[in-house]
From TrEMBL:
It comes from Salix suchowensis. It comes from the Eukaryota. This is Haloacid dehalogenase superfamily protein. The lineage of its organism: Eukaryota, Viridiplantae, Streptophyta, Embryophyta, Tracheophyta. Transmembrane segments: none annotated. InterPro entries: HAD-like_sf, HAD-SF_hydro_IIIA, HAD_sf, PGP_Pase, PGPP1/Gep4.
Length: 203
């Protein structure tokens, strides 16, 4: 069991599949990393306007989007925005993460349950890491097409690529903190961020 936990933790911290797909996206499909909306963090999102435009629900990434990495509690300054989102969309919000709720990392669902209890948001269980996979679990949870949902995350090569491939409105936030990330993850994140900036300014 300890080896399964260690392997899962390392896999969650370093998304090898995501890094490999990133290279392919940069070469062939760089439009997939471009978000529809770019904000510093979720406090800058107008939830009411999204609802008025016909969107029926919101899907959040977890780490560095609504929590600091590997935490199971909301980052304090975001609490009011999350409550506003709940007041607009009711129960039609969820977390879809490569940590809590991902079977490979959270095989007994304990992290998902702890996060649900702490933040009051449903965590969708799934088996395939973003950016791979379809929107099947999410559409089943919300009872609508992905084109009627908003995907919010901090990583262009996972959250945004996944969202764009599956037809969501995508919102990219800046990472809340890189301090807890391993050195290699910080370096890869910096490289991918620089690549995104080049694509944004030199399409």
């Amino acid at each position: 069991m300890w080896w399964k936990d260690l392997r899962a933790t390392l896999s969650q911290r370093i998304n090898v599949e995501g890094i490999g797909l990133s290279a392919s996206v940069i070469v062939k499909d760089h439009h997939l990393i471009l978000p529809h909306v770019l904000v510093p963090d979720i406090r800058y999102i107008d939830w009411g306007e999204l609802q008025r435009r016909g969107f029926k629900g919101v899907v959040f990434d977890k780490d560095n989007t609504i929590t600091v990495p590997y935490s199971l509690t909301l980052w304090g300054p975001l609490v009011a925005s999350i409550e506003k989102c709940k007041s607009v969309f009711g129960n039609d919000i969820a977390v879809f993460s490569n940590s809590a709720g991902l079977f490979e990392y959270d095989h007994d669902g304990s992290k998902a349950m702890a996060l649900e209890e702490a933040v009051g948001i449903k965590v969708i269980r799934h088996r395939v890491k973003k950016p791979a996979g379809t929107a099947e679990e999410i559409e089943k949870h919300f009872g609508c097409k992905s084109s009627q949902l908003v995907m919010v995350g901090d990583r262009p090569f996972t959250d945004i690529v996944y969202g764009n491939q599956n037809g969501f409105l995508t919102v990219l936030t800046e990472p809340l903190s890189l301090a807890e990330e391993p050195f290699i993850v910080r370096q890869v994140s910096r490289l991918l961020s620089e690549t995104l900036n080049l694509i944004l300014w030199h399409p």
